[in-house]
Amino acid sequence: MRQYRLPGRQASLGVSFEQIYRLSWASHEAVETPRFEQGLHTPAEHLRFIGAPFELPLPHDRWVRIVEQQTEQGQRYGVHADITVLKRQHVSWPKRTGARGRARRWCARRPPFSRPRSNTWSRA
Question: What is the tens place of the pLDDT at every residue in 33-50?
Fold first, then answer.
């Protein structure tokens, strides 16, 4: 529960995930309110599909990916992974344009080896 920055383990015992999520957003800035509201409705939509991963925004531009499973007895458990670095890289990717980006796209389309007119192979 470190991702949610709760005061301690006791804060997460016996409470619903919605309460934990609200508690993690207790000291958020007003500009982040739309992200909080979006994240508040996400679990209700996705928890109907056991095993399907979903992502939740957290305060201070942090993100968590959650995958829940259910035992044969009906108990649910989940894995909460911090994906903040991944999301930040994903957001910054479109900014990486220009010559370097064009070169990478060109190399990705080009086959790794080219056959010259002779019978020998060479690295392109």
Answer: 888 988 888 887 777 788
